[in-house]
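LOG
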Amino acid sequence: MSRSAHPAGPRHADVMSEGHYTAPADDLNALDEKVWSSTVTRDEHGALTVGGIEVSRLAEEFGTPAYFLDEADFRARCRAWSDAFGPGADVFYAGKAFLSRAVVRWLKEEGLNLDVCSGGELTTALDAGMPAERIAFHGNNKTVEEIERAVGAGVGRIVLDSFQEIVRVAHIARRLGRRQPVQIRVTVGVEAHTHEFIATAHEDQKFGIALAGGQAAEAVRRALTLDGLELIGIHSHIGSQIFDMAGFEVSARRVVQLLAEVRDEHGVELPEIDLGGGLGIAYTSEDDPREPHEIAKSLGDIVTRECEAAGLATPRISVEPGRAIVGPTAFTLYEVGTIKPLEGLRTYVSVDGGMSDNIRTALYDAEYSVTLASRTSDAEPMLVRVVGKHCESGDIVVKDAFLPSDLAPGDLIAVPATGAYCRSMASNYNHALRPPVVAVRDGAARVIVRRETEEDLLRLDVG
């Protein structure tokens, strides 16, 4: 690796005097286990390894940028969620976080169900062998073709998101001679403590049918009376990257109140309640996510308490972790290209990827951490902003972090916790080629989603 000299950027003392940034870790080479997957460590030479393979070897074989997914860690997280909730509940992996045929097979083998929200995700799930009865189909505007495919395949549930969809699904189910299990997604008026664009339970947004004004109650009436539908429960989802369980408590209370109203009006106790997903993960050392067993106990206690107060039997609980399973299992590996110090501000570190492989920083103002991966260093820390190679000033991967001041072009750096929503939301902006996803386990690495090529771009361009 090259170690060419460059002007030093702001040091620790300089930036801390401004009072705007968290102090760098005492050891920039240390790895916070909250942020990294379980098999990531450093070898005797100081290089980052995952699944027993050193990152320089991975970069040489698969190139950069690339996502490296710790398969053993992914499977362990699946088991942790399944064990935490037990046989009396259902865990649906939210496929929108990241989905591939390999991931579907892992989910099937580890006993999890799967939540999809598009025809493409449904096709991937079925093609990889996920039993249709273990699939839930979401979405606020499912097409007729998507609904026909889902009903025809026999998916275990369709989550109804509007009055139009209630009629649409009922009509298609009758035509296909099916009685389709459904849930009604309700918006409960809870403002989750998260970014505006990922808060999903306040009334002024596109998802669900509002509890306010009796709309959800009317949706239940229609679903119970239409042939072709089997209403099995109520669904609620309050947002994403949530650490505080208080929002779930309010949401569960309001959903249980609706269940009680349904019993009183229709003489029916709906057997299921889905509290969605949205549980947060650690992107930086500042984050403090809950463990699955803590979440399971908290949600179970909340629902049981509210049902007892309402005189209801406790329904079967479903949850939908996506980010909480796949997010911590992967990191993105980049090669440093240029280093540009701005005196008194920070040093800009440009890498060979950017917003085309991680749009979350630009879209959600998301925060990430970063480490020097190809070696260790005892140099002083410098404040950096890791940026991409795209023609956008907002092309930022990591807004503010500390890296060693001897960082040089050719070094490899790794951004952890990129398993969720990075490859799923990746783009071809500036005709960039989307990176591969490489699964690593027990000293072996294999591509599960290949890197795009220029031939792929040209194949779609039929002009």
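LOG (cont.) second protein
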Amino acid sequence: MNELIFADQELEVGFIGKLDALLEGIERMGASCKPSNEQFLTDKEVSAWLKVSRRTLQDYRNNGMIAYYQLGGKILYKESDIERLVMSGYRNAYRLET
């Protein structure tokens, strides 16, 4: 009878040890991951923002001008990528009016 109790305790201690190791791994993963507030936009939203057709967006994708994600048949764009694309075309004024 004592052997059974001891064997059960060994299993419990081993199980608890494995749970502790699992919890520690999850906590490490959580600490290394940073939450993202990134917004994803559809091609309809991006085309309205850039004032171009959805076909032009497809040309941008095909020519590697714009980064995108494809999930099944759905195309998504990171808002920050679109902002970077818009800002890459920004030019400062060189003539100041007085």
